[in-house]
Structure formats: structure tokens, C-alpha cells
Amino acid sequence: MTAKGLGRGFESLIPVDLVDEEFDLTATEDKKTSELKYLKITDIIRDEEQPRQEFDESAIKALAASIKEHGVLQPIVVTREDGKYKIVAGERRWRASQVAGLETIPAIIRTLDSQNRLELSIIENAQREDLNPLELATAYAKLQSQFNLTVSDIAAKVGKSESSVSGTMRLLNLPDEVKKIMVKEKLTEGVMRPLVSADAKMIQKVLPKIVKDGWTARQVERYVGDHKAKSSTALVKAHHYHKEEDALSAKYGALARVSGRTLSFKCKTEEELKALLKKLA
Which side of the chain, N or C, has fewer Cβ within a 10 Å radius? Predict the structure, then answer.
């Protein structure tokens, strides 16, 4: 059972609260062994052996406020134990739901055996060579959100570096329509990664160049980077520094320019440079 339709969320820059069935290779297997229900908060117990024992109170309160307004967008994952349900993943949501005054919470219920088998299946799939990047990203996200694994844990289990795992997972931040084009055109992770942090207008400009002109990852990276740098410099100057540039140019007899957070002077002759250095000394 996936959480599609129940909402999406982001943990830092990596989305872990959305496992889209379209890219979830274990969705069919999961449906056979998982059950989605609303459980009573009081019927749920924490895993006392869970490594994470401390939770930030302010973060829990903030999440509780969000839950009061929007509800629990992502089910927790539990296994049955002695007439209760032990939390596998989602203790923060469970704690925050209590603070928010909820009586029930959406939960994916699995047996311990099916949980273990599903984890192994996801890991095996994640090690395949024929996956498209979004299927791989979804596998990682599922391991993190439904199996309580850290990026470090996932990297160790699939034999990849932490940066590789986190970089792949960030592809899930791409707009849905861009993901579809990525799969249809068989675009690589490397060429799409720079677009994760780009705005919608930039994506619209660059995507046709990738698809039609065969742009490489380096070309995309350079184009997006240059655009951001120019936009940042233009924005700063437009709001703050044109007058200051003119004043400094007049005062020191050299062309003053502000670029980002850098102030520079340009001199036409050696004599002009010497005069400037004397004034600045």
C-alpha cells in the first residue's frame, strides 16, 4: 500500500514522504501484505530499541500545528505485537498527533516477516542496473520513510556513497510533468540533477535543450549556474548599489562595480591605478 494521495512532504532537501506508485517497483508486492487503516493512538507503542531516543520539542510542536491544520499527510508504519501496534517508522508523526489531540492516525500495517521481506526486495531492486533514476530514487525514499533507514544506512545496504544516494533522492523534487519527460526520453540523472534547484522558468528553457539538442550534464550545470549568478547580481544591484557605484567611481577616479558581495575597481591606465591605490591606502 503506498501513500499516494495522502499528501507529500519534504525532509530538508530530500523528499521522503511521497512514494509514488508509478515509480515504486515493489508496489504490487506491498499491496499483498500491507493494510492501511486508521488506528487509535492509544493502541500504538514505540519501539524501545529504536536508536533515536530524543526528539526536539519545538519540532514536535511545529509538526503538531501542521497536523491540526492539514492532518497527518503520511501514514506511519507499524507491525502487530501482543495486541498492540509497534512503530517501525513515523514516531515523530505519532508524538505530534498526540500533542495535536488526535485520537486516530493513518498507519500502514505489516507483519514483521512481510516488513523484512519487503525491505530485502527493495534493496535487491535498488541494486539492479536497469532501473531508471526515478525508480531508484523512489526505492531509496521508501527505505527511508517506511523502514526508518538513514541515508548512511541505505548507502551501506546498496553499496553506494551517501552523496550518491542523497543526490538521486533529490530527483523526486522535480515537477511531475518533468519526471514523465525524464522517463519517456530516458534522460540521465546527471543531466537532470542541476534542474532540481532550478525554478519553473529555467526548467522550461533548459529541458528542450536537453531533449532536442542533447545537452550534457556539464552544459546544463554551466547554463543554470550562470543564470543564477547573473540573476543574483542583477537583483542585488537593482535594489541597492547603482548609486553607490556612481559615487565610488567619482570619489576614486576609477570605475567601481558591485558583483554579488564583491566590490571591484577598474582602471584605464597605470597612472590611474597608482592614484587609486594611494587614495585607498
Answer: C
Residue 68 has pLDDT above 90, yes or no: yes
Which range is most confident: 50-59, 104-113, 248-257?
A: 104-113
Looking up cell 536537453 gives: 210
Q: Is 72 helix (H, G, I), strand (E, B) or coil?
A: coil
Domain ranges of the chain: 21-170, 173-224, 239-280
DSSP code, position 255: E
The pLDDT tens digits of the residues spanning 103-136 come to 999 999 999 999 999 999 999 999 998 999 999 9
Distance set, CA 57 to CA 36, 63, 84, 99, 246 (Å): 28, 10, 26, 10, 51
pLDDT average, residue stretch 216-234: 77
C-beta neighbour count of 96 within 10 angstroms: 24
pLDDT category of residue 2 using cuts at 50, 70 and 90: very low
7 vs 114: CA distance, rounded Å: 25
Among the listed residues 38, 109, 112, 107, the one whose alpha carbon sits nearest the alpha carbon of residue 74: 107
pTM to 2 decimals? 0.71
Q: Which residue has the cell 533514476?
A: 133
CA distance to 18, 35, 111, 222, per residue, from 39 (Å) = 21, 11, 15, 50
Q: What's the CATH number for 21-170?
A: 3.90.1530.30
Cβ burial, residue 16 (10 Å; 0-12/13-18/19+): buried
List the Cα angle 55/56/58 in 5-degree steps: 140
Consecutive H or E run containing 157: helix 151-158
Angle at 135 between CA 75 and CA 50, to 5 degrees: 40
**How much is the pLDDT for 249?**
81
Looking at residue 250, its amino acid is A
